[in-house]
Amino acid sequence: MSEHHGKPPATVSQFIVATLGGLFAPALVIYLIVKLVVGIHDGHPKDSDQASAQAAVLERIKPVGEVSLKDTSGPQTGKSGEQVVNEICIACHGTGALGAPKIGDSVGWGPRISQGYDTLVKHALQGLRSMPPRGGSPDLSDDEIAGAVAYMANKAGANFKAPQPKTEAASKAKEAPAKDAKK
Protein backbone atom coordinates (compact mmCIF):
# COMPACT_ATOMS: atom_id res chain seq x y z
CA MET A 1 0.00 0.00 0.00
CA SER A 2 1.30 3.39 -0.87
CA GLU A 3 1.42 6.27 1.50
CA HIS A 4 0.29 9.46 -0.12
CA HIS A 5 -1.99 10.44 2.68
CA GLY A 6 -5.13 10.94 0.68
CA LYS A 7 -3.71 13.26 -1.99
CA PRO A 8 -4.18 12.32 -5.63
CA PRO A 9 -1.06 12.39 -7.79
CA ALA A 10 -0.41 15.65 -9.65
CA THR A 11 -1.44 15.71 -13.24
CA VAL A 12 0.62 17.14 -16.07
CA SER A 13 -1.71 20.15 -16.46
CA GLN A 14 -1.37 21.01 -12.78
CA PHE A 15 2.38 20.74 -13.07
CA ILE A 16 2.43 23.12 -16.05
CA VAL A 17 0.16 25.65 -14.30
CA ALA A 18 2.32 25.59 -11.16
CA THR A 19 5.50 26.04 -13.20
CA LEU A 20 4.06 28.97 -15.18
CA GLY A 21 2.73 30.55 -11.99
CA GLY A 22 6.17 30.23 -10.40
CA LEU A 23 7.80 31.89 -13.41
CA PHE A 24 5.13 34.61 -13.80
CA ALA A 25 5.71 36.28 -10.39
CA PRO A 26 9.47 36.87 -10.83
CA ALA A 27 8.93 37.95 -14.46
CA LEU A 28 6.34 40.50 -13.30
CA VAL A 29 8.75 41.90 -10.68
CA ILE A 30 11.57 42.17 -13.25
CA TYR A 31 9.22 43.91 -15.69
CA LEU A 32 8.12 46.47 -13.07
CA ILE A 33 11.74 47.22 -12.06
CA VAL A 34 12.73 47.79 -15.70
CA LYS A 35 9.68 50.03 -16.19
CA LEU A 36 10.65 52.08 -13.10
CA VAL A 37 14.26 52.54 -14.26
CA VAL A 38 13.17 53.57 -17.75
CA GLY A 39 10.63 56.01 -16.28
CA ILE A 40 13.26 57.63 -14.07
CA HIS A 41 15.65 57.90 -16.99
CA ASP A 42 12.98 59.48 -19.23
CA GLY A 43 12.04 61.92 -16.46
CA HIS A 44 15.44 63.59 -16.48
CA PRO A 45 15.64 66.65 -18.72
CA LYS A 46 17.77 66.31 -21.79
CA ASP A 47 20.44 68.99 -22.03
CA SER A 48 21.00 69.90 -25.65
CA ASP A 49 24.41 71.43 -25.10
CA GLN A 50 26.95 72.25 -22.41
CA ALA A 51 25.88 75.92 -22.10
CA SER A 52 22.24 75.09 -21.34
CA ALA A 53 23.34 72.42 -18.87
CA GLN A 54 25.55 74.96 -17.09
CA ALA A 55 22.71 77.52 -17.07
CA ALA A 56 20.34 74.95 -15.57
CA VAL A 57 22.84 74.11 -12.82
CA LEU A 58 23.38 77.79 -12.00
CA GLU A 59 19.62 78.36 -11.82
CA ARG A 60 19.21 75.47 -9.37
CA ILE A 61 22.00 76.61 -7.04
CA LYS A 62 21.41 80.36 -7.09
CA PRO A 63 21.08 82.00 -3.65
CA VAL A 64 17.63 82.52 -2.20
CA GLY A 65 18.34 86.03 -0.89
CA GLU A 66 20.91 88.74 -0.98
CA VAL A 67 22.66 90.82 1.65
CA SER A 68 22.67 94.52 0.94
CA LEU A 69 25.03 96.76 2.86
CA LYS A 70 24.15 100.41 3.25
CA ASP A 71 26.60 103.19 4.04
CA THR A 72 25.02 105.28 6.79
CA SER A 73 28.09 107.34 7.64
CA GLY A 74 27.43 110.21 5.19
CA PRO A 75 24.73 112.87 5.33
CA GLN A 76 21.29 111.45 4.83
CA THR A 77 18.11 113.16 3.89
CA GLY A 78 14.90 112.15 5.55
CA LYS A 79 11.89 111.14 3.52
CA SER A 80 8.71 113.13 3.65
CA GLY A 81 5.57 111.55 5.06
CA GLU A 82 4.14 111.28 1.57
CA GLN A 83 7.25 109.46 0.29
CA VAL A 84 7.14 106.96 3.17
CA VAL A 85 3.45 106.32 2.61
CA ASN A 86 3.90 105.84 -1.14
CA GLU A 87 6.90 103.51 -0.71
CA ILE A 88 5.95 101.46 2.34
CA CYS A 89 2.59 102.15 3.97
CA ILE A 90 0.60 101.93 0.73
CA ALA A 91 0.99 98.13 0.71
CA CYS A 92 -1.53 97.75 3.53
CA HIS A 93 -3.16 101.16 3.91
CA GLY A 94 -3.81 101.40 0.17
CA THR A 95 -5.82 98.16 0.07
CA GLY A 96 -7.06 97.82 3.63
CA ALA A 97 -5.11 94.60 4.10
CA LEU A 98 -5.27 92.96 7.54
CA GLY A 99 -7.79 95.56 8.74
CA ALA A 100 -5.56 98.60 8.09
CA PRO A 101 -7.61 101.75 7.56
CA LYS A 102 -7.41 102.90 3.95
CA ILE A 103 -5.78 106.21 3.17
CA GLY A 104 -8.48 108.89 2.99
CA ASP A 105 -11.14 106.76 4.73
CA SER A 106 -12.45 109.11 7.44
CA VAL A 107 -14.72 106.41 8.92
CA GLY A 108 -11.81 103.99 9.36
CA TRP A 109 -9.42 106.65 10.62
CA GLY A 110 -11.92 108.50 12.87
CA PRO A 111 -11.47 106.38 16.03
CA ARG A 112 -7.71 106.37 15.53
CA ILE A 113 -7.48 110.14 15.00
CA SER A 114 -9.45 110.65 18.22
CA GLN A 115 -6.67 108.83 20.12
CA GLY A 116 -4.32 111.67 19.23
CA TYR A 117 -1.22 112.15 17.14
CA ASP A 118 1.26 110.96 19.79
CA THR A 119 -0.64 107.69 20.31
CA LEU A 120 -0.79 107.03 16.58
CA VAL A 121 2.93 107.66 16.24
CA LYS A 122 3.64 105.35 19.20
CA HIS A 123 1.53 102.59 17.61
CA ALA A 124 3.32 103.05 14.28
CA LEU A 125 6.75 102.89 15.95
CA GLN A 126 6.00 99.89 18.17
CA GLY A 127 3.48 98.08 15.98
CA LEU A 128 -0.10 97.23 16.83
CA ARG A 129 -2.18 94.14 16.06
CA SER A 130 -1.26 93.10 12.48
CA MET A 131 0.96 96.11 11.79
CA PRO A 132 4.66 95.39 12.36
CA PRO A 133 6.86 97.95 14.15
CA ARG A 134 7.84 100.82 11.86
CA GLY A 135 5.52 99.43 9.20
CA GLY A 136 7.98 96.61 8.61
CA SER A 137 10.78 98.99 7.56
CA PRO A 138 13.28 99.25 10.43
CA ASP A 139 15.52 101.71 8.59
CA LEU A 140 12.96 104.52 8.82
CA SER A 141 13.66 107.24 11.38
CA ASP A 142 11.15 108.29 14.03
CA ASP A 143 10.55 111.56 12.17
CA GLU A 144 9.85 109.70 8.92
CA ILE A 145 7.32 107.46 10.68
CA ALA A 146 5.71 110.48 12.37
CA GLY A 147 5.47 112.26 9.02
CA ALA A 148 3.79 109.25 7.44
CA VAL A 149 1.27 109.04 10.30
CA ALA A 150 0.45 112.73 9.96
CA TYR A 151 0.13 112.44 6.17
CA MET A 152 -2.30 109.49 6.32
CA ALA A 153 -4.35 110.92 9.19
CA ASN A 154 -4.58 114.34 7.51
CA LYS A 155 -5.87 112.65 4.33
CA ALA A 156 -8.73 111.30 6.48
CA GLY A 157 -9.60 114.66 8.04
CA ALA A 158 -7.11 115.19 10.87
CA ASN A 159 -5.08 118.36 11.25
CA PHE A 160 -1.76 117.03 12.55
CA LYS A 161 1.50 118.89 12.02
CA ALA A 162 4.18 116.54 10.74
CA PRO A 163 7.85 117.02 11.59
CA GLN A 164 9.85 118.30 8.66
CA PRO A 165 12.30 115.85 7.11
CA LYS A 166 15.83 116.88 7.93
CA THR A 167 19.32 115.83 7.11
CA GLU A 168 21.57 114.19 9.65
CA ALA A 169 24.11 117.00 9.27
CA ALA A 170 21.45 119.62 10.08
CA SER A 171 20.39 117.76 13.24
CA LYS A 172 24.03 117.53 14.40
CA ALA A 173 24.49 121.26 13.74
CA LYS A 174 21.48 122.03 15.94
CA GLU A 175 22.80 119.78 18.72
CA ALA A 176 26.24 121.47 18.77
CA PRO A 177 25.03 124.98 19.78
CA ALA A 178 22.77 123.44 22.41
CA LYS A 179 25.77 121.66 23.99
CA ASP A 180 27.85 124.86 23.87
CA ALA A 181 25.06 126.81 25.58
CA LYS A 182 25.03 124.35 28.52
CA LYS A 183 28.73 125.02 29.30
**Derived structural class:** mainly alpha
Mean pLDDT: 80
Percent helix among the residues? 55-70%
- What's the shape? elongated
Write down the Rg: 38 Å
- Major β-sheet profile: none
The CATH H-level homologous superfamily of the domain at 81-166? Cytochrome c-like domain
Order of helices and strands: HHHHHHH
How many beta-strand runs?
A: 0
Discrete helix count: 7
* Low-confidence parts: 178-183
What's the CATH C level of the domain at 81-166?
A: Mainly Alpha
Strand-residue proportion: under 5%
Q: CA-to-CA gap between the ends?
A: 132 Å
CATH topology label of the domain at 81-166: Cytochrome Bc1 Complex, Chain D, domain 2
Q: Based on the structure given, which CATH architecture of the domain at 81-166 is correct?
A: Orthogonal Bundle
Primary descriptors:
single chain; 183 residues; Cytochrome Bc1 Complex, Chain D, domain 2; disordered C terminus
Structure characterization notes:
- Helix content is 57%, strand content 0%.
- The chain is an all-alpha fold and 183 residues long.
- It has a domain at 81-166: Cytochrome c-like domain (Cytochrome Bc1 Complex, Chain D, domain 2, Orthogonal Bundle).
- Helix 4 (106-115) packs across helix 5 (117-126).
- The longest helix is centred in the N-terminal third of the chain and has 32 residues, at 12-43.
